[in-house]
Amino acid sequence: METNKSFRTTKKLQNILSFATIPPSVNQVEMNPTCQQKNLIEFCLANNIVVTAFSPLRAKGASWGTNEVLDNEVLKAIAKARGKTVAQVCLRWIYEQGATIVFKSYSKERLKENLEIFDWALSEDDTQKIKLIPQRRVNVGPSETLDQAIWDGEI
């Protein structure tokens, strides 16, 4: 899903905004409770750039994905307390951050379930617990030097 046109850091966005006659309107980036990208999201929203979250569940089952989101104990506890799935908690959290979401499923039932996030809200306590989840990217550079060049030290 990620393209070369994705502006991964506030530094890269500041650079393009300094000369672009037509600024970017959408920034599609990895975003989920284990890769929250708080600074980038705030920067985009402050500059009227829509954030679209890809990999909202960390692509469990994909060769490059992980189980970090769906197996996260904090998210599991919130889901259990709310009578929701972990996927619904994650998607609702992204929605509450002001981002749009790219998700997929081959299951009609899960697609329907993924859309059942608009008639409830996370509590402030839930949101605070999610903020404390350790952060890590799945999509990283092949070396520390390249990783620094790609991400500008941001997560």
UniProtKB/TrEMBL annotation:
The protein's superkingdom reads Eukaryota
Q: Which InterPro entries match?
A: AKR, NAD(P)_OxRdtase_dom_sf, NADP_OxRdtase_dom
- What does UniProt give as the signal peptide span? none
Where the record annotates domain NADP-dependent oxidoreductase, the positions are 9-131
* An MF annotation (GO) of this entry: oxidoreductase activity
Q: What's this protein's name?
A: Aldo/keto reductase
